[in-house]
Amino acid sequence: MIKNKWWKNYLYLFVVLVIVIFLVRIKHKTPNEIVQEITPSVGNIQTTITSTAIVQPQNRLEIKPPINGRIDQILVEEGETVKIGQTLALMSSTERAALLDAARARGPEEIKYWEDVYKPTPLLSPIDGEVIVSKDEPGQTVTASDVIVVLSDQLIVQAQVDETDIGKVKLGQGVVITLDAYPQIEINGKVDHIYYESQTVNNVTIYQVDILPESVPDVFRSGMSATVTIMENEKDNILTLPLGAVKRDKNGAYVLVGKTKGKKPEERRVELGVSDEQNVEIVSGLAADDKVLITTQKYKANSAKGGTNPLMPAMRRK
What we know:
CATH superfamily of the largest domain: RNA polymerase II/Efflux pump adaptor protein, barrel-sandwich hybrid domain
Radius of gyration: 38 Å
Distance between the termini: 68 Å
CATH architecture of the largest domain: Beta Barrel
Strand content: over 45%
Order of helices and strands: HEEEEEEHHEEEEEEEEEEEEEE
Shape: rod-shaped
Largest sheet: 6 strands, antiparallel, barrel
Number of strands: 20
């Protein structure tokens, strides 16, 4: 009887032990996980700031007549390059225009006499630049407050940078400019000026940033919309890992480094540097030949009959 009792006790302990092992295995089982082993790669990371922008003159100069009168001739066209001191237009004062109108009733000789005696007033260009507005016609009456011609010394791109990014923008940083009208054309430029006063656009605080193109293509027009990509930071030949390989806790960042077969992976502390949307720089803590483990979830199909992909909408039954 005693012997049978011991056997029953042993059997009971064995069953309990099997149940405990089963529960532990179930607890730690991760059938939906895929463990991938990778090594750090040597590459480059470039961080950028993207913003909307507009093409406009760096210095916009409006040419107004010194007197009231009438335009005789417009001597330039939009898009034309002009030099300092070049005559842009000729106009008659109100008195000259009245004299010439009266002389026309007396014949060509009278008109020629007054044209020689009373010369027209020239409008001269004060700068070397480009004509960006010239829409008046000869014969039009103007006042001293009317704009006859608008000049630009050169076209630039003015970006609107969010206040959260303005601290990352520095003078001289490289920029890639893309015009909305010509997305296939990329123009290189650099940050030329950062404005000190903010503006509020759609309840967002922004700062204007002037970007100077290295060259101004013929397709540039004042008022064109553009997108600018400011090169914030770029590092070459650095050790990088995918962002998904790096884990974080209250003590900082770490990665799982694979050991020999059968041994538990090691949690290795790493120091991080710059990052983009996909990769992060590993400053220290890893070597190029270390094996880093990445754990990802895999899709598990419904094993029940008629199971469907949970990511797809359910089909209605008729």
